[in-house]
Design goal:
The protein has about 210 residues and is mainly α. Helices cover about 60% and strands about 5% of the residues. The longest helix is centred in the middle third of the chain and has 21 residues.
Length: about 210
C-alpha cells in the first residue's frame, strides 16, 4: 500500500485529498462522513487496498440503501475536477495562532526515543491506565498519564488518538491541534504504512481548527 500511495501521489496524499475535498465543496457537493448515508452518491478511495472489501461494502449498501454505489479512485476524481473546473481549490495557509499550554517535554527530552521496544515497555502501562481514565471521564488525569507514557518513550498512533480525543472532550482545541501536528510529523519521519493514519489525523486537525475558529 505504501509503495502504491507513494507512486500515485508522490508523497503528497494529503494535498490531493484536500484539493479534491475543497473543490467538491466549492462546487456545491457535500462530502459525507458515513459511507452508508442515505444521500450518498459515490465512494472515493485512495488506493487499491481500499477496494479489498468492495463486494462486502456493495452488498451492505444494497441491503441498507437498496442500491449499489458508484466507486472512483481519488486520482481519477482529481484529474476529472482539474479538467472540468481548470482550477483546483487549494488549502489556505492562513490559520490562527495555536497557543497550546501543556506540560509535555520537548521531543528531544523523551526517554527511549530511539528504542521503540523499551519505550513501549516503559510507557504503554501509563497509556493503558490513561485511556481507562479518559473513558471514565477523568480527562485531566488521563492527559497526565498520556504525558508520562510519551515521556517514557511510548510512541504509537493510539496514544496520539487518545490525546486528541481527551483534548476535544474539554474543548482544548489548541492542544488537540498541537498534539496532532506532533503525531503527523513523527509518522512522516518514520518508516511504516502510516498514510491512512496521517489522513485521519489531518481530518481531525481540520475539524479541531474549525471548532477553534467558531
Amino acid at each position: 500500500m505504501r509503495d502504491e500511495i507513494s507512486v500515485i501521489y508522490a508523497s503528497n496524499l494529503e494535498k490531493y485529498k484536500d484539493e479534491v475535498t475543497n473543490t467538491l465543496i466549492a462546487n456545491g457537493n457535500k462530502v459525507l462522513k458515513s459511507k452508508f448515508a442515505k444521500s450518498i452518491t459515490a465512494w472515493i478511495y485512495i488506493g487499491d487496498d481500499y477496494v479489498t472489501n468492495y463486494n462486502n461494502d456493495q452488498e451492505k449498501a444494497l441491503n441498507e440503501l437498496g442500491r449499489q454505489i458508484p466507486t472512483y479512485h481519488m486520482i481519477d476524481v482529481w484529474k476529472h475536477l482539474k479538467n472540468k473546473f481548470e482550477e483546483i481549490a487549494s488549502v489556505s495557509n492562513e490559520e490562527p495562532i495555536i497557543n497550546a499550554i501543556h506540560n509535555r517535554v520537548p521531543l528531544n527530552e523523551i526517554k527511549n526515543l530511539n528504542n521503540w521496544e523499551r519505550g513501549f515497555d516503559k510507557g504503554y502501562p501509563f497509556y493503558e491506565e490513561g485511556d481507562k481514565e479518559r473513558k471514565s471521564g477523568n480527562i485531566l488525569g488521563a492527559i497526565n498519564l498520556f504525558d508520562k507514557a510519551r515521556f517514557n518513550g511510548y510512541n504509537a498512533p493510539a496514544l496520539y488518538s487518545s490525546y486528541a480525543m481527551a483534548y476535544r472532550k474539554i474543548k482544548d482545541y489548541d492542544n488537540e491541534i498541537a498534539i496532532l501536528d506532533e503525531a503527523i510529523e513523527r509518522m512522516k519521519s518514520e518508516q511504516g504504512n502510516y498514510e491512512t493514519r496521517i489522513m485521519e489525523f489531518n481530518e481531525r486537525r481540520a475539524k479541531a481548527l474549525a471548532l477553534k475558529c467558531k
